[in-house]
């Protein structure tokens, strides 16, 4: 049944979301929130003040209803008009490659850890000791005396 052939009493029994769905379905066009809600107000013969009072609630209702999709240009369309043609197939080969690459990463990390050069650490200790040989340790008591 089309919206134009429906009586006002019949339309009043429908939710705004259902009427919006019918509007988008019949018009075959993408519409913004204000245009859809204006059409609903005219169909239900509501006062124009309803627009300002209820537009935010209507937007929220559309946004939470999975039948609608908000497009990049700010217009609404039916989600059923936007199906994805892309199908991702996961094969056993893909899983094996993923496991192999993880094992290779672990092996490389282990090799890096094993190849750590201890001589660098010894050189560092010698340099540090050379720098620290002139340092003197002072007790707190000695510090108080100097002040």
Provide a count of the helices.
7
SS elements, strand count: 3
What's the architecture of the domain at 8-81 in CATH terms? Orthogonal Bundle
Dominant shape: elongated
Strand fraction: 5-15%
Kindly report the spatial arrangement of strands forming the biggest sheet. Answer: 1-3-2
CATH hierarchy, class of the domain at 8-81: Mainly Alpha
The whole-angstrom Rg is 36 Å
Mean pLDDT: 76
Measured distance between first and last alpha carbons: 97 Å
Question: In words, what does this structure look like?
Answer:
The mean pLDDT is 76. The protein is elongated, with a radius of gyration of 36 Å. The longest helix has 23 residues, at 92-114. It has a domain at 8-81: Arc Repressor Mutant, subunit A (Orthogonal Bundle), CATH 1.10.10. The termini are far apart. α2 packs across α3 (33-44). It has a three-stranded antiparallel beta sheet with strand order 1-3-2. By secondary structure, it is mostly helical. It is built from seven helices and three strands; from the N terminus they run ααβααββααα.
Topology:
Blueprint: H1 8-12, H2 16-27, E1 31-32, H3 33-44, H4 49-64, E2 68-70, E3 75-78, H5 92-114, H6 118-132, H7 140-146
Antiparallel strand pairs: 1-3, 2-3
Helix pairs in contact: 2-3, 3-4
Short description:
The chain has helices at 8-12, 16-27, 33-44, 49-64, 92-114, 118-132, 140-146; strands spanning 31-32, 68-70, 75-78. The chain has 147 residues and is mostly helical. β2 and β3 form a beta hairpin.
């Amino acid at each position: 049944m089309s919206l134009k052939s429906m009586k006002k009493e019949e339309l009043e029994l429908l939710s705004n979301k259902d009427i919006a769905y019918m509007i988008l379905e019949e018009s075959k066009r993408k519409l913004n929130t204000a245009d859809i809600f204006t059409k609903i107000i005219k169909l239900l013969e509501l006062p124009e003040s309803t627009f300002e009072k209820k537009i935010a609630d209507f937007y929220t209702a559309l946004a939470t209803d999975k039948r609608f999709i908000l497009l990049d240009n700010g217009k609404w369309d039916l989600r059923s008009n936007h199906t994805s043609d892309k199908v991702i197939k996961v094969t056993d080969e893909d899983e094996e490659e993923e496991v192999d690459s993880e094992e290779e990463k672990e092996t490389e990390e282990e090799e890096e850890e094993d190849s750590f050069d201890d001589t660098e650490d010894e050189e560092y200790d010698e340099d540090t000791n050379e720098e620290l040989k002139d340092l003197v340790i002072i007790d707190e008591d000695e510090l108080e005396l100097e002040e």
